[in-house]
Amino acid sequence: MIQKTSGEMAVPAVEEILSDLIKIKTVNPPGGEIAAAQYLKRLFDRYHIPNEIIEPEPGRASFIANLGEGEKKLLYLSHTDVVPASEGWDFPPFSGEIRDGFVHGRGAIDCKGLAAVEACAVLHLAQTTELKGRLIFAAVADEEVGGYLGAGVLSTQYPDKIKADFAVNEGDEPWNINGRTYHSISVGEKGPAWMKLTAQGVSSHGSVPMLENNAVVKMAKVINGLAKYRPQIVLTPETKNLLQTVARIDGLYDEVNENNVDYILGKLRDRAIVPYLSAITRMTISPDVIHGGIKTNIVPDSCEAQVDIRILPGQSWEYVLNELQEILGDVKTEPLQYHMPSFSSADSQYYRLVEETLKEFVGEAPILQTICTGATDSRYLREMGVPSYGIGVLTLNTDKALGDSVHGKNEKIDVASLHIKTDFLIKLAKRYLGAE
Ligand SMILES: [Zn+2]
Q: Taking the model in full, what pTM does it have?
C-alpha cells in the first residue's frame, strides 16, 4: 500500500456529505437528479478522481467515477432520486439536520445514505491507497420509478461504464429477531407480474337480473378464487438457508424443506417476520383494485380489477397464466408491469468475500441471505451478468423505527452506522482490488 503523504486533503465527514445530498431535492417524479450529480462532480473533482455525468434527458442525470486501473473491477452503486415526503415530519424532510447522532431527512436511508458512504469510501481510498484494479462509483437517477433513466440507460447504452466483476447496492434493513440484531446480504428480488383483469357481461335492467351475465358477479368469483389459491412452495438454496438460520435462532432444529415451510413459519415466536418469510417462499397474489358497474339498477357489462402478483426465480408470466387458468376462466388478462425475478448466487467467491468482510464489522452473528420482495437497480446489473449484493444499514443496535421510516415519515440514519459502512466499503475495495 502506498501512503500518499504529500498533498493529502482531508475528506469531509460522511454525515456532512449525506446532509448536503438530502438538501438537494430530487423527488422522483420529476427527479432533477442533475443537481445531485453536479454536487458529486464538484466533490470528486476536488480530489482529481476521473468522473462524468450521463444525462439521457434534461435534468435526469447519473454520476459515474473511476478510481484505479487494472483487470479487476468492483462497482459501488446507489441512486440519488427519492420518493415524495408527506406532511407532519419532526424535522423538515429536506433539512438534512444532523442531531442526536442521526442524520434526518428524505433519502437518509433510501438511498442517499448509501451514495454518501460509497462516495466517502472512494475519496478516502483516493487519498491513501493505490488500487490494483478499478473501483467504479455510480450514483444513478430514476430508481424509485423503475430505473429506466438511470441504471436502465447505463446498462443498455453504456454497459462498459458500469460492467464489473460484482457490485454492492442497496439492501434490506437489519432484522431484530428476539431482541438481537442480524444483518443481511440481499441476493435476489422477486419479479412483479402485475395483472389487469376485465370481466365482460351483458347489460340489462337490475329489476330483472340475470346474474350469469353480471360482470361484477363474475369478477367476484375470480377474486374469491385468487384469495383461496394456494401457491406452490419454492425454496432456492438461499431462501432455504435463510429459513434454516431463522429457525435455529428460534430453537427449531427441523431440517427445512418444501413440505414443512408453513409448519416452521407457524412455530416461529417472532411473528413480525413471518409475512416476509412467507412471501419469499412462494408466488404472492394480492387483488388490490376493483371497479365495476355504474348504477344501482343496471346489470354491469364490465368489471375491472388489478392484481399485484410477484413471482420467484424460475417463474414467469406464462407460469402465472398456467397456474391461474382455471380460476380466471374467460376473464381477459393483460400485464400492467412485468419483469423477471433476478438473482445472484450466494455460492460464489464474491459473495463469500462480501460476507467475510461484513462479519468483521458487525460481529459473528449469522448473516442472513435475503430476497427483496420489491425491485431495485440490481436487476439491471444481474441482467448484464454482474452479480449484485445488497447491503442495508449497518447499525449495531436495531432501532425498529429506522427501517420503518423508509418511504415513510421521519426517515433518518444513525451516524455511527454511516462510519461503519464507509470502513466496510474501504476494506472490501482494498481486499478485492489487491491493495492488501
Ligand atoms: Zn432505493
A: 0.92
